From TrEMBL, chain A:
Keywords: Heme, Iron, Metal-binding, Monooxygenase, Oxidoreductase. It comes from the Bacteria. The lineage of its organism: Bacteria, Bacillati, Actinomycetota, Actinomycetes, Kitasatosporales. One of its GO terms (molecular function) is monooxygenase activity. SUPFAM superfamilies: Cytochrome P450. Gene3D superfamilies: Cytochrome P450. Belongs to the cytochrome P450 family. Residues 1-32 are annotated as: Disordered. InterPro entries: Cyt_P450, Cyt_P450_B, Cyt_P450_CS, Cyt_P450_sf. This is Cytochrome. The keyword Iron applies. Pfam families: p450 (PF00067). Residues 1-16 have a biased composition (Low complexity).
Amino acid sequence: MADTLAGAAHDAADTAPEFPMPRASGCPFDPPPGLKELQEQGPLTKVRLWDGSEPWLVTRYAEQRALLGDARVSADTDRPGYPTKASAEAGEGKLSFIMMDDPEHARLRRMVTAPFAVKKVEALRPTVQRIVDGLIDDMLAGPRPVDLVEAFALPIPSLVICELLGVPYDDHAMFQENTKTMVRTTATPEERGAATREIAGYLAGQLAERLTGPKDDLLSGIAGRVAAGELTHGQATEMALLLLIAGHETTANMIALGTAALLEHPDQLALLRDTDDPKLVASAVEELLRYLHITHLGRRRAVTEDIEIAGRVIKAGEGVIMVNEIGNRDPRVFEDPDRLDLTRDARRHVAFGFGVHQCLGQPLARMELQVVHGTLYRRIPTLRPACDLADVRFKHDAFIYGIHELPVAW
Amino acid sequence: MRVSVPDTSHHDEKGKGYPMKVELEADKCVASGQCVVAAMEVFDQDDDGIAILLTEEVGDDRLGDVEEAVAVCPAAAIRLVRP
């Protein structure tokens, strides 16, 4: 802003605030203060993005849910007005059904919902418990301090999603490197394209193997849809890629952020350390999902017909961004919203979004987080940060918010 | 003295013993599983993850859970109605 010409600066004074906004220093778990101010002023306001476009930013819970649940709001990134996140995102291929509308979205989504049903996910709990216990055994036997992200937060969802898809875990290092590149906003289009192609190529190979020799895994289920003529090879690969990425970086960051936040709130951590009540653990996980947020760039849509909401009209062809992070701190819905309180009823949070695109893997994410937070502090009751919070690097520059490294000791 | 909203006045008398009816529009369901988490005794999922009703009638003991399911369903596929 400082080096814009006088005329441009004058115009800027009349234009919308820029989004995304920075968090306050020393408050890595709280939404940017600028978002709070906008929420106090009203439920929606225009903001300015990196490319100069001015979509609506929706800051309050009720309006966020209403718009995410509205069929006149499109997830299709090719629609006029769709607010892109960064230059690298524009013009990229679509990531399967999360960037489509019904009815095609529903047709594709329903092909992969089966393994994420609550009771099917519950059957995986002993496997996840074994994975979590194994990683804690390794940490306890290894040197101190240790980076919790590398030793614990990343391998858990990697192991789980590889198990679910049927991908050999030996290949997880390749996934981790490439997904890191894919979610880094500062990656060039070339870098992101190369990372995507490497994973997609690998998954295409895995799917081709399943076409001739099916196994009892999710990739075989997707390959079966190809054999039945319901999906092209390309669609099948995109779908596998979506499931792999969505189940990977997201959960890992929630594990790391949750642990860091609890280490900053020892009274709350003590509740988990001293309980074996699955209800309290489940409640704690919902509150962590409400209080923390990884999709910090908001859920983005394009409006296809004029929509009247909160006394305004959002016109067809305009973009909307629902920042659920601030919706989950809306005092109209959650009392004393900036307090982390593991005993509150936080179930109505919108951490997984809302509407037809709400996270498909949420039962799996919940169960993984329940096992993590129900186990880690009980098995390592003296767990403590091995550096100042001020020295921890948070992922301000990534599509998915989180923590780069979290050194811990005990 | 309680002020009733006209069209739902009789709903205010919770605990009068007669059960509410749950309605589910399965073609709207997006298989998020939220209803099962909220009210496991009333909702389940079929082989594709789509919600199914285990019972259509809900007494006072489960009313709160089902109200929660209505509130958290991302597809607005569940309704509670007076039979």
